[in-house]
Design a protein that fits this description.
By secondary structure, the chain is mostly beta strands. It is built from 1 helix and 29 strands.
Length: 357
């Protein structure tokens, strides 16, 4: 591709019978396509690419509230199709939003103007015309129906899309919208195609009064499955508007892991029950290192640290832990001690800027 083109994400399709391979790349508000394994690159000039003035598509991976490393995925059986996950432009029904007309109001419409989560798109490159290295073309892009949006959680995760091919040639499509991970059997045709992993669906709230209770911590960053992971879904049959989702119909095989703020959870029954992962995978993710404060007349220091999973902590000697200040930082950043002034520590505020003494 041309020198200076900013690209953060790349996805390669399978090798074709003629030994060619389609490759896709995306950077901030630009999409690139190669029909020959990366030898030639063509900028996609489609007018249908997602446009949000506040959120560039294809932005750089970041640890909070943005993209993961996996925002592109090639559709199995259709190497000319590529999925794109991005922040903003959610189009699913909203639940637990408070103050809106009712549950089930669609996002980004007059009924519910802003949702704040992510969206999923499909690019069809079957009609992309290549007539020479200097000629650019355009794919056919459209926004797919996104999953239901569940308010009241963090939106501090990442957007990503991932695919699990199945033995019969179909596939499971996973999509994270900053808040939750959702799964669809193949291409989603409506919001009812999606089932929420790691949390209860709107239909569960209607049946069991779960009140948007997550089974694992919200704010996902990545998932992984064993090669044999397989589930079957069915559309919810609850009354409207609590029927705009699917639910788990049958667990077939495999294990799924989900990395969220604070650690890793796994399920060996298709997401029906989740457990905290052991063997060092369960962590409160200390941001950077401990900060130590020297206490007059004390042999042991006071230790401070912040965690990205909501909170800061300190101890005098390690026997008991408490909250070091009344300042609420949410996903907290580092504490730093000053070697030249051993009677003070600094608390950094990554979200709001600055620091506190």
């Amino acid at each position: 591709m041309p020198a200076g083109a900013a690209v953060y994400h790349v996805a390669a399709g399978p090798q074709q019978p003629d030994s060619s391979r389609r490759v896709y790349a995306v950077g901030p508000n630009q999409f690139w396509y190669s029909p020959d394994g990366g030898t030639q690159w063509f900028k996609d000039l489609s007018s249908g690419l997602p446009i949000d003035p506040n959120v560039p598509y294809g932005d750089a991976p970041y640890d909070c509230c943005a993209s993961s490393a996996e925002v592109l995925a090639v559709e199995p059986g259709h190497p000319e199709h590529v999925f794109l996950a991005m922040r903003g432009l959610a189009n699913g029904p909203a639940y637990f939003s408070g103050g809106d007309p009712q549950d089930g109001a669609p996002c980004n419409t007059p009924a519910k103007t802003v949702c704040g989560e992510g969206s999923i798109w499909l690019g069809d490159y079957s009609g992309f015309k290549v007539n020479g290295a200097a000629v650019t073309g355009a794919a056919a892009w459209r926004q797919l129906q996104g999953p239901p949006i569940y308010f009241g959680n963090g939106n501090s995760g990442a957007v990503f899309v991932q695919i699990r091919p199945l033995p019969d040639g179909s596939y499971l499509l996973f999509f994270s919208d900053l808040n939750s991970v959702h799964v669809s059997e193949g291409m989603p045709t409506s919001s009812a195609s999606w089932h929420r992993l790691g949390g209860f669906d709107a239909s569960d709230d209607y049946l069991f009064h779960q009140s948007n209770t997550p089974q694992v911590h919200v704010d996902p960053h990545a998932i992984a499955t064993t090669a044999d992971f397989n589930i079957q879904l069915k559309t919810a049959t609850t009354p409207s508007p609590y029927n705009h989702n699917s639910v788990l119909n049958k667990f077939i095989s495999g294990i799924i892991w989900m990395a969220n703020d604070g650690g890793v959870a796994f399920s060996d029954n298709g997401g029906n029950i989740w457990s905290r992962a052991l063997s060092g995978l369960s962590t409160i993710q200390v941001n950077h290192v401990f900060a130590a404060l020297s206490l007059p007349g004390k042999s042991e220091p006071a230790l401070y640290f912040g965690v990205p999973d909501n909170g800061s902590f300190f101890t005098r000697g390690g026997d008991a832990w408490g909250v070091p200040s009344s300042y609420y930082c949410g996903d907290c950043d580092a504490w730093v001690s000053d070697p030249a002034q051993t009677n003070r520590v600094l608390q950094f505020n990554a979200r709001g800027g600055g620091f506190f003494l």
